[in-house]
Amino acid sequence: MTQHLLTRSWRTARVATAALALTAAALTVSGSTFVHGAPHAAPVAASAQVVAPCLATTSAQRVRAGSDRNGVDPNDLTLAQTQQAESQLAARTRQRVLAGGRASLPSTTVDVYVHVIERDSGSGGVSKSRIKKQISALNKAYAGKTSSASTKTPFTFKLKDIDHTRNSGWYHWGAPTDTSVGDDVTPKTALHRGGPDDLNLYLADLDDDLLGYATFPSDTTLARDGVVVLNASLPGGSATDYNKGDTATHEVGHWLGLLHTFENGCARPGDEVDDTPYQADGANVFSCSSKLDTCASKGKDPVHNFMSYGDDACLSRFTKGQVARMVTTWLAYRAPGSAG
Fold it and tell me: Which of 27, 143, 190, 207 is such that its CA lies 20 to 30 A from the CA of 108?
């Protein structure tokens, strides 16, 4: 099994994109139809792209500006891995979404189980008030209320329960790499609750300065499913520029099947969403300048998109195509009755 990571590093090297691509299917979302699969305009030459290393495990990560993006990335996807995941989702969609006649999703509540990891002494935890602010930040983002240019999704997040675990070893949480599962198995196996339609959110002091990572539903066990975020990234935390709650917004986007907007740089198939313009995969992804246009294809860089790498103050929107992708992923993998 390949573990899909969706990580966002605070100070160190980028862990690049992860794979779950959308089938060419028409979906009705928020009363409008969006058709996936139409090709983008011609990308710029491959020489203008940032080429990521080819390694075993997979990831999509958002990193802090100034991070060393030249380090070896233990979680990059190859194009072949992206295509394989796309084929898997397409087959799953034909089998479970289109075959069932389902092309839309009504308002859907996602129960959230929050697991707060603390030191043995009980220090280092996150207060209930900050957790509630995080849920509020998620709901505002996914309701399309963060920008007039953002699209409302059908998802609402409801805080179901909070548990606290004192374990200094887990508190200094090590993320999986291509050679190690880190702390992704034991804590999750012990703490995970609910099914694939429930969000398990783990809060810890992540090692290696990571801000967070998440699993894709296409390639993980239920016990390892969920989102792990740096405790300091919740609203009011100490992760400067990344403490308004959008680490979780970004990672939940991955949990619902979204790729980075700069996936594959200026080359096809990009992020597999037709209304997010191509975006070069370089230092530009940290910029919040709406003037950026790093690819020859139509459209300026989606610097304000939640699936880019800007800081929390910069990110504010999802597109209709991204919402359609989230709906497809939910129906194919997470909706009750879709398992198996």
Answer: 190
